[in-house]
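Re-running the complex after MR caught last week's input typo. The corrected sequence lines follow. Everything else is unchanged.
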Amino acid sequence: MSEIADKVKKIVVEHLGVEESKVTPDASFIDDLGADSLDTVELVMAFEEAFSVEIPEDAAEKISTVKDAIDYIEKQKAA
Amino acid sequence: MIGALAGATPRRVVVTGLGMVSPLGVGVDTTWSRLIAGQSGIGSIKCFDASDLPAQVAGEVPEGPTDEGKLTLAEWVPVKDQKKMDRFIHLGMVAAIQAVTDSGWVPETEEDRCATGVMIGSGIGGLQTIYEASLTVSSGRARRLSPFFIPSALINLISGHVSIRYGFKGPNHSAVTACATGVHAIGDAARLIALGDANVMVAGGAEAAVCELGIGGFCAARALSTEFNATPERASRPWDRDRDGFVMGEGAGVVVLEEYEHAKRRGAKIYGEIVGYGMSGDAHHITAPAEGHEGAFRAMKNALRDGGVDVSDIDYVNAHGTSTMADDLELDAVERLFGDHGSKIAMSSTKSAIGHLLGAAGAVEAIFSMLAIRDNVAPPTLNLDNPARESRIDRVAHEAQRRPIRMALSNSFGFGGTNACLIVRGAP
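Corrected-run output:
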């Protein structure tokens, strides 16, 4: 697993207070990990801070699973 | 008989659950037994470095293991939810959970859920949260504000969180009247039950303003004690000639109020009855009470009238008594109200032991008043070494007194010239 994926997982565990084993790539923040809409806003802000990237609102709206977040950040970092 | 002025036949309101967190500990019994034993919850400020401020003492809730009567927040509020709430909400939740659990009230039907409401207030709300958010803004990072900033600072969010946790779908409300908040919340919630808006209300107040902004702000208003920084336990000394300002405390008090027949039907344990509720405004000054505390006098009188109670029925007064110059004005008003019966009552200020809990004070002190009736004991006024003036009223200096207490009057007065008084008695 990439360094980015590891870090994303860690942030999700920390912010949503869920067990690490539940944070699988396909896990949906809202449907599987108990987040509400404000939690997802905060989560995206935490990703921005941790990876020094900017995630515009329209992109943030499409990030609904752990994999979505990892893919988006990896793409930004590669660019 | 709450609500006598409304025209409708008011329903009787009793208290069936109690919850408290205070500088003396977590839990009603913990605080009450330590209070009666004459212990003080006041110490040097721990949660921030107060060395730059003239006031350096406060009553902070002790952190530690639950079985020692201390606060382990994670046992009350899940860690992931804690960041969504300012500390005043944490403390409000701790007291509300105790009160609801104590009452044993679990609404099984939608009708029962809709007849169960919440009215928990705060004087100031999420001061530390607002302070921290303002630092984010001032560093040019307004776009980095947490989405939880606003809901963690809003005063009515204790009521919101309690309703969400328990599914209480009745009136969801919040009182905000500075240091009178706790009494207004309980009194208004009792009226909602008396007039039929709800059958059960979870009511009270919470405060967590022991932070740099809170202490600094009250210092600026010259309201806090500054002469006892080296001897914190001596700082809160209502009516004493050496008193020099109030000592801030943090905590929460919450009660479960219930319509009498409703409580009887389900066989609830009943602590006591809310007998009278009186309010007034000073229309005088933003922080100073009027001459002779005439606003307080009228509020007490209104509570007597509301309850159809004579002063001779009352054996204990839990004074507002903040350890400021206003103590003697309250004493004037109480002496005038009670007349000759004044020599037969006990009046104490429990702020001498826990400090002034601002928006939580009235709720915590209403609970003390109920326990004073239950146990026939008047809690002490600590540090009343040399009364600034003599009075025929026994102010329970230093040690608790065992004495028969049928009814108790609890006073709370707030900045802005707002006054609220409750009269309670034992179980019907």
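None of the earlier attempt is carried over here. The first strand of chain B starts at residue 13 and ends at 22. DSSP finds 14 helices and 15 strands in chain B.
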